[in-house]
């Protein structure tokens, strides 16, 4: 999970503008809530008979059962903030990064715990207005932001778990497109706020990156010519473009798979530097 509790700097770009979270990806608030449950169910279904003590290659500090505790605690933390209608995010309540003590747990123990947490979170989100100013982050309404963030958190960590267990991974292209959009509108600006010295090297005249899904309507241009990244939809010539199936684009931007195997046009090093800087 992005360590957003350590952020410094100003508000997330577009604060107070509802289209910031709805305009790209096009999944509704209701779909985000439903997918928190759906993605958790898919995760739980992959655990039957598995050894949850194996290490997770993409999260090497954790075993699978620790990864699952991370996901479940993230759900419960968000649930608590929404139900209590906290005015702002309270990072001190999160237990999602302190999971190293968990060991020897089974799917029979963790599966129901994960499902219960996901269902409770979805219920809490559905009981409030999407744009209610509770659990806000970067000036954005918490219900809308966290419904999407927790859905995508579950998607990516589902991949982490099934990859560690050798189980096939499938993802609805519409969910994948929403995930790519969220990465550009959430992880990307936060990287610039968290790592200004590192990301400053990405900024300059003509610095643009085009993400192009070949199997779904998802094309995004990342404009790095100003002090903070700007993102727009559409097909444009850019300094570097990467093309591939939308699910593979998700795994690439989250650094779960290498760029190799996708089509890259232009400055390959620019793309590598961007992905290295925007990391979870």
Automatic annotation (TrEMBL):
Source superkingdom: Bacteria
Pfam name, any one: MDMPI_N
Range of residues in the leader sequence: none
Domain MDMPI C-terminal per the UniProt entry, residue ranges: 175-273
InterPro entries hit by this protein: DinB/YfiT-like, Maleyloyr_isom, MDMPI_C-term_domain, MDMPI_metal-binding
Domain spans labelled Mycothiol-dependent maleylpyruvate isomerase metal-binding: 34-161
NCBIfam families: maleylpyruvate isomerase family mycothiol-dependent enzyme (TIGR03083)
The protein, known as: TIGR03083 family protein
């Amino acid at each position: 999970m992005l360590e957003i509790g350590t952020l410094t700097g100003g508000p997330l770009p577009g604060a107070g503008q509802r289209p910031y979270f709805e305009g790209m990806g096009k999944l509704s608030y209701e779909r985000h809530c439903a997918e928190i449950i759906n993605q958790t169910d898919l995760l739980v279904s992959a655990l039957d008979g598995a050894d949850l003590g194996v290490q997770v290659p993409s999260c090497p500090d954790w075993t699978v059962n620790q990864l699952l505790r991370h996901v479940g605690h993230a759900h419960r933390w968000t649930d608590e903030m929404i139900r209590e209608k906290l005015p702002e995010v309270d990072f001190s309540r999160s237990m999602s990064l302190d999971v190293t003590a968990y060991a020897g747990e089974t799917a029979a123990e963790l599966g129901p715990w994960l499902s219960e947490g996901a269902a409770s979170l979805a219920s809490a989100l559905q009981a409030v207005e999407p744009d209610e100013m509770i659990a806000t982050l970067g000036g954005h309404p918490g219900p809308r932001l966290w419904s999407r963030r927790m859905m995508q958190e579950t998607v990516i960590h589902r991949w982490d778990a099934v990859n560690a267990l050798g189980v096939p991974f499938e993802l609805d292209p519409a969910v994948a497109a929403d995930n790519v959009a969220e990465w550009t509108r959430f992880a990307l600006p936060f990287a610039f706020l968290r790592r200004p010295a590192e990301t400053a090297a990405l900024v300059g005249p003509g610095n643009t990156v085009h993400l192009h899904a070949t199997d779904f309507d998802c094309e995004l241009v990342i404009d790095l010519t100003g002090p903070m990244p700007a993102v727009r939809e559409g097909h444009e010539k850019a300094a570097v473009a990467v093309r591939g199936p939308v699910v593979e684009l998700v795994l690439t931007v989250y650094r779960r798979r290498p760029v190799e195997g996708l089509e890259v046009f232009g400055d390959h090093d620019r793309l590598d530097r961007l992905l290295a800087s925007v990391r979870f």
